[in-house]
Amino acid sequence: MSTWKRTVECGAVTEKMLGKEVVLNGWIAHRRDHGGLVFIDLRDRSGIVQAVFNSDHSKEAHSIAESLRSEFVVSIHGTVIARSEAQINDKMATGKVEVQVSSIAILNPSKHLPFSLEEDDIDEELRLKYRYLDLRRPLMQQRLALRSIVLFSMREFLIQNGFFEVETPILTKTTPGGAREFLTPSRIHQGSFYALAQSPQIYKQLLMTAGFERYFQIARCFRDEDSRLDRQPEFTQLDLEMSFVEEADVRGVIEHMLAFVFKKLFNIEIKLPLPTFAYDYVFALFGSDKPDLRYNLPIYDLTSVFKTVKLSFLEAVLGQGGKIGALHIEDKKFTRSELEAWVEKSKKLGSKGLLYIHFAQDGTIESPVSKFLPTDFLKQAQSVIKSLKLGDTLFIVAGNYKEAWPILGKLRSAFAQELDLIKPNTLNLCWIVDFPLLERDEKDTRWNSAHHPFTAPKEGWEKLQPGDMKAQAYDLVCNGFEIGGGSIRIYDKAEQYKVFEMLGLSDKEIQEKFGFFLEAQEFGFPPSGGIALGLDRLLMILANAQNIREVIAFPKTQRGYDAMMHSPTPIAPTVLKELGIACIASSKEGNADKK
Asked: What are φ and ψ of residue 50, in 5° steps?
């Protein structure tokens, strides 16, 4: 192999090297046979360079070149020469030169690939099954290179600003609440299990009581949840914690870090401070706590307008304290089939129905309920929707506020996509604050933490009902995705204990689950706050990718299956016996991804 040690990368061969001998290693991207001349495009991580095999220059190399195929791994020895004027390719960084090959070694041949690396529309499961081939594609290499430099720049900024990078355990203790955890059995302590860390939350707070004051970590986290376009069973987050801080301090560090990264890597200027909105405000306007603000399509509350309309299903909603919300689509006349398609889409999103009202240019109202509407309905609606006019359409959902508004929020996103309302190549960042401290679980008739049980309540919380308490929590939102979430922490033992009790934990459960943490709060526990950024989501946005699987080297499928490694797999009975585990047969056999 030493004979074929690379002297330069393919993408670095330039006119400055004319006349020099080089050794290049890489994969054959293309091969073109012109009889006495054979051309190949040789690719490595840095780019592509053209190599030419001339039978008059080297018969042996030319003879080998006749057997070459795409994706063979080869090493070539040759001289850099100028391309003829007619062959110059201005689209390639190496387009003015080529390498005249003197000798070649086939380091490893390749079978015919299951898909072309130049295709764009490849079945995703096929891509994931052969992920090592998929990652050869320049686009995927660019995305993982982007990931590398973004993470490096974040580390650079934080270390320059006094943060220590500290690793925390992945095998940890199972705790109540939050997402479903992955469990790992202990061979030594049979019958007991570790949990894979959902996040380093407790550990980073303990690092504050240890006196580190400024901590960060590029942390691997695990949650046994259904995958989505922005969620995987295992993911990476930038975890950060600071002592003796207020909310503005934590948010300020993140804002200046992102400004540093965006300016350094993309030459993008971020206007600071980022805009801040209250949770109640964005939920009322957009039906979401992570609104996409790249387009203006708010939800309008038309409850007051419909109070006098005699429609039984609307009267039933209003009688139960529900609300009626609308999306206003301007200057759009939908066909009957389009309207029916939107009704079906709304039902898939969870609505019981979608009412549409079109105000035709001739002044008539086109709607399944037009005969029930007053003649001055347009004027009444305009009292709420000032910009409403003839030619516009309203889409209306009625129901419980906490249920109807999220459906309208999802419809809002769907309309924005369908009607091309989203500004391209835009990063719209904002903070969402004043979240509820607790959420009611009506099924179990108990309160759960809206963020996590270590989040500090806002001042005056003791005098409020649980549903009215607000949290000192803050989320960072970009283009409709929550890319970060954090809070100021509880550092007083008595306050922490009271929050645990509000969550329905008994004294025994509190001691079993969090006794060590409460004890730590008795040994000089400092005030602190922190945040975690979902790096996969942020990189998905920066790479203009459609889901986070596109920026993760080896992701799982939507059903949490590793199509390349064929994982998860059954475990041999002897191993289970050693771990003290017995498996109960499920009625559902096999894995859907294998079918």
From this structure: -85, 135
In this structure, what is the dihedral angle of CA atoms 576, 577, 581, 584, given to the nearest 10 degrees? 80
CA distances in angstroms from 226 to 216, 277, 307, 339, 481, listed in the order given:
28, 29, 40, 31, 17
Alpha-carbon distance of 71 to 112, in angstroms, equals 8
Measured distance CA(504)–CA(509) in Å, rounded: 9
335-346 residue pLDDT tens = 999 999 999 999
Query: What is the predicted pLDDT for the residue at 587?
Result: 61
Structural contact between residues 455 and 471, judged by C-beta atoms closer than 8 angstroms: yes
The per-residue pLDDT for 594 is 41
Locus of tokens 């689509």: 329
- What mean pLDDT is predicted for residues 305-311? 93
Q: Residue 102 has what DSSP assignment?
A: E
Is the pLDDT at 593 greater than 80? The verdict is no
Structure token digits, residue 539: 């990189």
Residues 6+ apart with CB under 8 A from 590: none
Q: Which of 67, 70, 66 is nearest to 113 (CA)?
A: 70
CB under 8 Å, gap of 24 or more: what pairs does 463-466 form? 466/437, 466/438, 466/440, 466/502
Amino acid at site 188: I
Which residue's entry shows tokens 């050869």? Answer: 136
Segment (H or E) for 75:
strand 73-82
Cα angle at 523 between 453 and 516, to 5 degrees?
A: 50
Q: Are 109 and 27 in contact (CB under 8 A)?
A: no
Percent of the chain with pLDDT over 90: 90
For the cut 90, the answer to whether the pLDDT of residue 106 exceeds it is yes
What is the structure's pLDDT at 177? 61
Cβ neighbour number for residue 590 with a 10 Å cutoff = 8
Domains (range + CATH), the chain: 2-108 (2.40.50.140), 141-277+432-574 (3.30.930.10), 295-418 (3.30.1360.30)
DSSP state letters, 257-283: HHHHHHHHHH-----SSPPEEEHHHHH
Which amino acid is it at 407?
A: I
Return the SS3 of 9: coil
- Entry pTM: 0.92
Mean pLDDT value across the chain: 94
* 3-state SS assignment for residue 362: coil
Task: Kindly give the pairing relationship between strand 183-185 and strand 193-196.
Answer: antiparallel
Say if strands 164-165 and 214-222 run parallel, antiparallel, or are unpaired.
parallel
